[in-house]
Design brief:
Layout lengths: L9 E6 L3 H11 L5 E6 L3 H9 L5 E3 L2 H7 L2 E4 L6 H9 L7 E4 L4 H12 L6 E2 L1 E3 L20 E4 L7 H13 L3 E4 L2 H27 L4 H6 L3 H7 L6 H10 L1 H23 L3 H23 L3 H5 L8 E5 L5 E4 L5 H13 L1 E7 L5 H12 L3 E6 L2 E7 L11 E2 L4 H11 L6 E4 L10 H10 L3 E4 L3 E6 L9 E3 L5 H11 L5 E5 L7 H8 L4 E4 L2 E5 L8 E3 L4 H13 L4 E8 L6 H9 L2 E10 L2 E9 L20 H10 L2 E5 L12 H11 L3 E5 L2 E6 L6 E4 L4 H10 L7 E4 L11 H8 L2 E5 L4
Parallel strand pairs: 1-2, 1-4, 2-3, 4-5, 5-6, 8-9, 11-24, 12-23, 15-16, 19-20, 30-31
Antiparallel strand pairs: 7-8, 10-31, 10-32, 12-14, 13-14, 16-18, 17-18, 20-22, 21-22, 24-26, 25-26, 27-29, 28-29
Bound molecules: shikimate-3-phosphate and phosphoenolpyruvate.
Enzyme class: transferase
GO cellular component, one term: cytoplasm
Keywords: Amino-acid biosynthesis, Aromatic amino acid biosynthesis, Cytoplasm, NAD, Oxidoreductase, Transferase, Tyrosine biosynthesis
């Protein structure tokens, strides 16, 4: 049924003028469309109130005549009263009308409709708005209650598509985000996310209220009690109906919860600190992960909802870098350590793990697939590996936040599992190309559905047998090569991936560390399927990509002398050092050593006068993540610096060529974008100004470094994502000698 383009209004009858029914009517009244809103309720005073508040324009006390006038009938009565209303509707002419409801349990509604009508009518669209309040009644009704809230519709196979689109449209008019879901899935999900917490709140308050000390308990109840029990003020009749209406799913989730509680109790009895800390930490990270997943944005931004993504860095001009710093763990190695540790037999202990959002997203994804992971606690993570075939199907999509590495590498692993998986990410990741991994994986026998243009989400079918391929990669990407090697562990025969040039080789090194053999022949890496991984200990060195900001900082800030300790100097990652040395930088590697298969050194940097260069093509993949800050170095160098062969920069967390050119120009630098690089004519100071990081962590940090040579304050917008790779950047930068503050929330 389409909304007609005639002047006649659409007649909408709301049956049950409580909080939800009243708010539905009020929201439609205010949306500017041509609706005639009618209200029916068994309580006359509710009808009168709804009319006098202007929530409906017609109060109806005769059900039959109200239904005869209605085009849409919205049933908003308590769950257990639904069958009665459906029974009354059965005897009436419902031709051309659309019926919908707002009940919290869809299974019982569908069953009642089946019992009453013989089969669920095609024009019945079951619905459930995920919004409410602990207040009830028509006086609590509020236009805007559903704005930006989710509404779940659970159409059946025989549901009339035009009825479904009309109901979808009405909820959209209320400002809601409408999703469709299977009836059973809806009830299971809601049992866990809504029904269980409500029952717990009711039960806790009831238990404490029965305590003889209750006066004092309630008088001194602090924030935790208030937060936890707010929903115990909800409508008892409604929750009685829900408890009985969705009893199977609720009992299952209550049992699961009770099991967790018994565990927790036991840990306290036994003074088992390890178990208590592990539970609390798992819960805390999961809470942060879910919060940002729901918002599809950075964790830090969700910590303070009022600030949204609007974290601004404010960097004051000048500064000198002195002393010693240790940057956080390597992001590439951290991702891989979780993946291989999870699939290994036995316990893998990781030290120096990067507690940044990207690697935490990988960690959470493996927890979601049933892997028991302790920590991170001061960089230590303990993974109880489940073996090559031990992952379990996750209950929902795996959310990978901002992390391209996580999505591309996991695409390889997930293509070989027995179950279906969907990989999703935030706005930035959702716009990055995935066909570079999807195409060869499909060639190996994987089945993967992407969104338009080969973008995420990736819907990966389980139960496929993969076959080894010999793949010539079109771009120098470690993510593509690693993805194919990981898939290759599960494929029949040999899988080879040849990169056009040198790419980072952490996967090769780590596979060797886990006892999985592979052949490396220059840029061609081959792996034989069917092997095993044996757990190991991993010491993650500091991330040279994070150290790069301070290497450039100490180079361009006069009088600096900085020591960066325990930094990974894997030769496939040191392009930034080679390029800066070609420009004249004073960088010395001290105390070079090998730690767990990776080279590590302390890096001493003293200020130097830089000159512009043509960046050698062969160094480009070895410095691919460091170009944002290298452009800052180039702006400080005398003469022209030219970069070519770096079109990959256009498909990182932002288009890093455009983001950097825009920012450099805004700060008075002569910079020009090329299709695959940039020309910078350097040697002048940056002027004061504001730049947009476009939510890209490396752009944000690069412009902080520019402030060392600026004539005034540099403001950098949209910096929350710095937490993806460098969670303590502001603290370390300030300690090293920059004057940096944040507006919004603390990074
Ligand atoms: O394999 C990895 O860990 C990474 C590879 C690089 O991406 P490409 O493979 O797209 O070059 C790099 O930019 C990314 O930050 C991490
Ligand atoms: C490109 C980067 O990471 P990813 O591809 O994992 O998002 C980066 O950290 O600069």
């Amino acid at each position: 049924m389409e909304l007609s383009k005639t002047d006649a209004p659409l007649n909408i009858l709301v049956v049950g003028l409580g909080l939800i029914g009243g708010s539905f009517a009020a929201s439609l009244r205010d949306c500017g469309e041509n609706f005639h809103l009618m209200g029916f309720d068994l309580r006359d005073e509710y009808i009168e109130e709804a009319v006098s508040l202007g929530i409906v324009s017609e109060g109806c006390d005769d059900f039959e005549s109200a239904v005869s006038k209605a085009d849409v009938i919205q049933i908003s009565v308590p769950m257990l009263a639904m069958p009665k209303v459906l029974g009354q509707l059965k005897g009436l002419d419902l031709n051309g009308k659309v019926i919908t409801d707002v009940g919290s349990c869809k299974g019982s509604l569908v069953k009642a409709a089946q019992d009453i009508f013989g089969q669920v009518p095609e024009n019945l669209v079951p619905g459930h708005p995920i919004a409410g309040s602990e207040k009830s009644g028509v006086t609590a009704a509020k236009s805007g209650l559903f704005k930006s809230h989710k509404v779940i519709l659970t159409p059946l196979e025989n549901t009339d598509p035009s009825a479904l689109s009309l109901i979808r449209y009405l909820w959209q008019c209320c400002g809601a985000q409408v999703n469709a879901m299977d009836v059973q899935r809806h009830d299971e999900v809601l049992a866990m996310t809504s029904h269980l917490p409500h029952l717990l709140a009711f039960s806790l308050v009831d238990t404490l209220a029965g305590n003889p000390e209750n006066q004092d308990i309630f008088r001194y109840a602090a924030g935790g009690f208030r937060d936890f029990t707010r929903i115990a003020g909800s409508d008892p009749v409604m929750w009685h109906d829900i408890a009985l209406g969705n009893s199977d799913a609720i009992l299952a989730s209550l049992d699961q919860f009770s099991e967790g509680l018994v565990h927790l109790r036991q840990a306290i009895v036994e003074k088992d600190s390890k178990s208590l800390l592990a539970t609390f930490e798992r819960a805390r990270t999961a809470r942060q992960h879910f919060a940002s997943m729901l918002e599809r944005r950075a964790y830090m931004a969700t910590l303070n909802e009022n600030q949204g993504d609007s974290v601004t860095f404010v960097a004051q001009p000048g500064g000198t870098l002195k002393g010693e710093l240790r940057v956080p763990g390597d992001k590439s190695i951290s991702h891989r350590s979780i993946m291989l540790g999870a699939l290994a037999e036995g316990e893998t202990i990781i030290d120096g793990f990067l507690e940044g959002e990207d690697s935490l997203a990988t960690l959470q994804a493996f927890r979601d697939m049933g892997v028991d992971i302790e920590g991170p606690h001061d960089g230590r993570v303990v993974i109880h590996g489940v073996g090559m075939q031990g992952l379990k199907p996750p209950v929902g999509p795996l959310y990978l936040g901002n992390a391209g590495t996580a999505m591309r590498l996991m695409a390889g692993l997930m293509s070989a599992q027995r179950f279906d998986v969907t990989l999703t990410g935030d706005q930035s990741l959702s716009s990055r190309p995935m066909d570079r991994v999807v195409n060869p994986l499909v060639e190996m026998g994987a089945e993967i559905e992407t969104a338009a243009g080969g973008r995420p989400p990736l819907k990966i079918k389980g139960g496929k047998s993969l076959k080894g391929i010999d793949y010539e990669m079109p771009m120098a990407s470690a993510q593509v090569q690693s993805c194919l090697l990981l898939a290759g562990m599960y494929a029949e025969g040999e899988t080879s991936a040849t990169a056009p040039g040198v790419v980072r080789d952490h996967t090769n090194r780590m596979l060797t560390g886990f006892g999985y053999p592979l052949k490396v022949d220059n840029a061609r890496v081959s792996i034989q399927g069917g092997g095993q991984l044996s757990s190991t200990a991993i010491d993650v060195p500091g991330d040279i990509s994070s150290a790069a900001f301070f290497i450039v900082a100490a180079t361009i800030a006069s009088g600096s002398d900085l020591l960066l300790t325990h930094v990974g100097i894997n030769p496939t990652r040191t392009g930034v050092i080679s390029i800066l040395q070609l420009m004249g930088a004073d960088i010395t590697l001290l105390n070079e050593r090998e730690v767990g298969g990776e080279l590590v050194a302390d890096i001493r940097v003293r200020s130097a006068i830089l000159k512009g260069i043509d960046i050698p093509l062969k160094l480009v993949p070895l410095a691919i993540d460091e170009f944002p800050v290298l452009f800052i170095a180039a702006a400080c160098a005398e003469g022209t610096t030219t970069l070519r062969g770096a079109a990959e920069l256009r498909v990182k967390e932002s288009d890093r060529i455009q983001s950097m050119v825009d920012g450099l120009v805004a700060l008075g630098i002569d910079a020009e974008a090329l299709v695959d690089g940039m020309v910078i004519r350097g040697g002048r100071p940056f002027c004061a100004g504001t730049v947009d990081s476009h939510g890209d962590h490396r752009i944000a940090m690069a412009f902080v470094i520019a402030s060392l040579r600026s004539q005034g304050e540099v403001r950098i917008l949209d910096c929350a994502h710095v937490a993806t790779s460098f969670p303590n950047f502001v603290r370390l930068a300030s300690r090293a000698g920059l004057t940096l503050s944040t507006e919004g929330i603390q990074a």
